[in-house]
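Hey team,

Filing this mostly as a record. A colleague (T.K.) asked me to run one chain through the structure pipeline before their review meeting, and I want the input and output archived in the tracker in case anyone asks later how it was produced. No errors, nothing strange. Just documentation.

Input sequence:
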Amino acid sequence: MILKLSIKNYILIEKLDVNFKEGFSSITGETGAGKSIILGALNLISGARVDHQIVGPKNEKCIVEGEFLISESLLDFFNFHDLDFDDHTILRREILVNGKSRAFINDSPVKLDIIKSLSEKLINVHSQNHSHILSNNNLYYDLLDSYAGQVNTTKEYKKYFSNYTKINKEIHFIQEKKIEFLKNLEYNRFLYNEIEQLDLREGEEILLEEKFNSLKNFDKIKSLLDEFNSLSLIQDETINERISKISNTINKIGSLSIDFESFSKRFDYINLEMEDLFTSISNYMNDLSFDQENFEKIQSRLYKINDLEKKHGLSSIKELIDKKNELKVFIDDSSKFDEKINSLNKNLNDLKIKMLELSKTISTKRIASSKMIQSEILIAFEKLALKNSKVIFNLTETVDFNENGINNLQVLFSSNNNSKALNLSKVASGGEKSRILFALKSILAKKVNLPTLVFDEIDSGTSGEIANSIGGMMKVMGKKIQILSITHLAQVASKADHHYKVFKLSINNKVVTNINKLDNSERVEEIALMISGENVTESAINQASELLK
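Output structure:
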């Protein structure tokens, strides 16, 4: 239940705190006083989308907080979303001047869908505009199962059905993958063999490229070596011979002067290095030859490797080897498809046995509870001026499983004994839908702990005995759950355990909205005002007093 609603800088409200009580509370006030503002604030903490225009006159952020008393049944929700659990939980929305908003649960920032999901478990708002939910069969399944006391059973079934659906999708996916696999099996074998035949070694493309470039440039290399050989001769003497003579001369000087000793050693090193270098170049020149066959072989291998890399969109031999291994795994996996499908089908059959047992039990209890609910609806309809109207729950059993078991449900409505019962959401009028929804909620409230119910002028267009009945039914509902009713009717307001009045004040030339909880004498005055209008008569006072007895 909601304990407190705090509003700051919201439209005409600068600051407002409202403490709510358990039971049935009515909220009244003149048209335009701001009852819709209170409702809008409740919608905000329920996760409604916002418009920056709701930010009040102070040109600062708008804050709406709702403090709720909650049960440990919601502990799993808090744990799942990694939130701190507190039986006094606060839902808060902050709306900035630019329209951006933030949501909090117990001071922890959360996404809007999380606060919306939690609020649905804490508070439900109903108006004549919300009667479209009568077209949602989940409402009726919840009603039937709650009435039959099998909510936990249906939760268990839905858990099985979720797994059942998941496994079916997985089987379908694997079957499609298998078909695609078989289509491409031979082609994949060809691709694998194509790479396998090359007997690739990681990194060999570098060596191949080096050898290929050497052979490709053979003529240029030979020509340049010949040029080098000619340059190395100076007056019939090689550079190496000349350096050797210089080295000997330096060595002689070094033997005579210690200053030249280091120079001598350096020339020795140069002489040795030059001898080795010229020997290596000479050997290379002697061994230099062009092997046409080897050139073509290397060229062909490089072409094949490059073609395969382009074919597979790859850039190295390593990636080709990885692709080959991938294809090998793919080819070897052909037998695993059937193994996986067989395993999943076994799990599916086990689930079917459990689901069939549960769904049969659920269906039997639904049929029984539908008969009793139909009878209760007739009683409620008598009070709501829907005499001779009836709602029929047409439950049939199916061969296949669905999210609701083995049931298909049609909810039919007939406004009189002579008319054929047709789809409720299509044939019932707006006023009828509002009262039907109210009747269903009143029946459900007897069986389960519903969240706080907020009725926004669902009694609009009714008067007299009907309004009196609506008020009486809300009072009965208020003994089990918290009820907030925004109403213009004295008959409804008079039945409330608590009465709040919304009104406007002019403070410092500014109009603001406020709300007060009325005491007994104030209630008499307010209800008399609702009866007679602006001029409260003695008769209206007496009538109000009578209604409040």
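Quick notes for T.K.: The radius of gyration is 45 Å. The chain has a mean pLDDT of 85.
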